Amino acid sequence: xxxxxxxxxxxxxxxxxxxxxxxxxxxxxxxxxxxxxxxxxxxxxxxxxxxxxxxxxxxxxxxxxxxxxxxxxxxxxxxxxxxxxxxxxxxxxxxxxxxxxxxxxxxxxxxxxxxxxxxxxxxxxxxxxxxxxxxxxxxxxxxxxxxxxxxxxxxxxxxxxxxxxxxxxxxxxxxxxxxxxxxxxxxxxxxxxxxxxxxxxxxxxxxxxxxxxxxxxxxxxxxxxxxxxxxxxxxxxxxxxxxxxxxxxxxxxxxxxxxxxxxxxxxxxxxxxxxxxxxxxxxxxxxxxxxxxxxxxxxxxxxxxxxxxxxxxxxxxxxxxxxxxxxxxxxxxxxxxxxxxxxxxxxxxxxxxxxxxxxxxxxxxxxxxxxxxxxxxxxxxxxxxxxxxxxxxxxxxxxxxxxxxxxxxxxxxxxxxxxxxxxxxxxxxxxxxxxxxxx
Length: 439
Ligand SMILES: *Cc1c(COP(=O)(O)O)cnc(C)c1O
Known about the structure:
Distance between the termini: 81 Å
Number of domains: 3
Domain Radical SAM core: 120-332
Oligomer: single chain
Helix content: 25-40%
Bound molecules: pyridoxal-5'-phosphate
Strand content: 5-15%
Cofactor: pyridoxal 5'-phosphate; [4Fe-4S] cluster
Structural class: alpha/beta
Strand order of the largest sheet: 1-2-3-4-5-6-7-8-9
Order of helices and strands: HHHHHHHEEHEHEHHEHEHEHEEEEEHH
Number of helices: 16
CATH architecture of the largest domain: Alpha-Beta Barrel
Largest sheet: 9 strands, mixed
InterPro entries: Aldolase_TIM (IPR013785), LAM_C_dom (IPR025895), Lys_aminomutase/Glu_NH3_mut (IPR003739), Lysine_aminomutase (IPR022459), rSAM (IPR007197), rSAM_sf (IPR058240)
Number of strands: 12
Keywords: 4Fe-4S, Iron, Iron-sulfur, Isomerase, Metal-binding, Pyridoxal phosphate, S-adenosyl-L-methionine
């Protein structure tokens, strides 16, 4: 059922004569998004006291409110204060509490931006912010700083700057469209953009990160899917956080995308009092894989301003991973990551499985607590790699062009480079050495 009683009631409060075709029209949903407390109260019948309403007003002045009628219809009104959808969609005054360690731009996305709209953090891929708007303002948004800035979808001339950047950087093989929500663009504009990006010879894949299947599943129309299909290989990542978000409508949207041949992934954020429970997470990942969505990342909540009430200790995430590894299908298990404050990128975190190690044995433990040993080979001959494929007996010559320089920890492991340590730029001991030499 795509139009249930709650939805009918909400629709009739928005417009007396609302047809099912209106409800399922994504533009109707956007036009009628709920962005004031008054409208929220009118539609849900929920009523806040005077004091709370004033606090909420202050909160929404700083971090605006916007909920699609569809997503609003998922809230359990009789128990709304504990409802995971309510908590993600409707703010609370705790958002105004900022902590000293919180940052406006914790991931330094703006600092790592060579041109407007592009964050270039990793060697071979870029994040391209193609829209500044979303259909629903998630209260846990990591880009909370930008929410409610003048809403805009960049003009083609602005997007062109990002396209030019990708075109002039041949190492970029993967372009991730993000935002805001890229699916806030019209089909026409999105097609223009995809056409431009996919015609760049060195771009191998494009990805779209969107929360539409969760908060506005009617955006996934047949027309959109048939347009997107022209730009394969196109990967799509969405953002379900709780099993309650998997509904008839969202399943239908996911089925359209999966049938369109897009590999689907999901990025969840670990949120206190929403999904910080191994059982909820397990149910979520099971529902995702039933709908052909592969759990991709589980994010530790970022240090953005106004998110302190959502943050859990990292131990909670490790506990959840412990409850998934071995306990359920390997492909149902996301990678738990912490996006490094300051712009270091995503760092994967796992429980420890290696217990000990000697020259020829590794001691490991499994999910049941069984301790086992793996005997390492006696006869393995380490291959010296000086990155000269012509002199190597492995049957794949990698041209120099395809191999960028080794960087980071990989460099410490490499044979061709004699770097033995990585040293922070402001190392006091080494600064002393320099002075010593000068004297
Ligand atoms: C997450 C992210 C990516 C993509 O990372 P993957 O691990 O490849 O999914 C790229 N750029 C930025 C800035 C990111 O935050």
